[in-house]
Specification:
The protein is an alpha+beta fold. The protein folds into two domains: about 80 residues, Beta-grasp domain (Ubiquitin-like (UB roll), Roll), CATH 3.10.20; about 70 residues, [2Fe-2S]-binding domain (DNA polymerase, domain 1), CATH 1.10.150. It is about 30% helix and about 15% strand. The chain starts with a strand and ends in a 6-residue tail after the last helix. The structure holds FE2/S2 (inorganic) cluster (2 copies). The site of one FE2/S2 (inorganic) cluster has 11 residues, from loops.
């Protein structure tokens, strides 16, 4: 099996990593780069806990071969806050009580970011549809949808949205 040095662009930084062809993106992020905000649960594309953005699109990092993400722009939950200031989506999840155990939260927030980048004023049904691939065992979803609405409003009103 051939190892190669590949350059990953994660949260705006470039990282050289030795990868093998079978290696998954989640393993590069968590084990090679120490970005443990990305969570591993089902490993099968069923829960969304491992969601990251690849060129702005929500992607299951547990199903993504690392080599396919080389050279693309990868965003993890660690890339959202601006120093000590939470991203408006993160702040809204905190304020609305949309986080309980927090295991689903990074994936939920990244799916939300992809939604709001494309659709700044989604309906509740559009929010449900955008988050359909992200499961939460704790919250019952209502507070998550409330949080997305608050985040959308904050971002529309000029809150940090990068
Ligand atoms: S861990 Fe990737 S979808 Fe569940
Ligand atoms: S807050 Fe626990 S799984 Fe969503």
């Amino acid at each position: 099996m051939t190892k190669e040095i590949a350059t990953f662009i994660v949260n705006g930084g470039e990282y050289e990593v030795i990868v093998e062809p079978h290696m998954l993106l989640i393993d590069v992020l968590r084990d090679k780069l120490g970005l443990t905000g990305t969570k591993y649960a089902c490993g099968a594309g069923d829960c969304g806990a491992c969601t990251v953005l690849i060129d702005g699109k929500p992607s299951f990092s547990c199903l993504t071969l690392a080599v396919t993400a080389v050279g693309k722009s990868i965003t993890t939950i660690e890339g959202l806050a601006d120093g000590a200031e939470l991203h408006p989506i993160q702040q809204a999840f905190v304020d609305k009580g949309a986080i309980q155990c927090g295991f689903c939260t990074p994936g939920m927030i990244l799916s939300t970011k992809a939604l709001l980048d494309e659709n700044p004023a989604p309906t509740r049904d559009e929010i449900k549809s955008a988050l359909a691939g992200n499961l939460c065992r704790c919250t019952g979803y209502v507070k998550i949808i409330d949080a997305v609405e608050v985040a959308a409003e904050t971002m529309r009103n000029g809150g940090q949205g990068s």
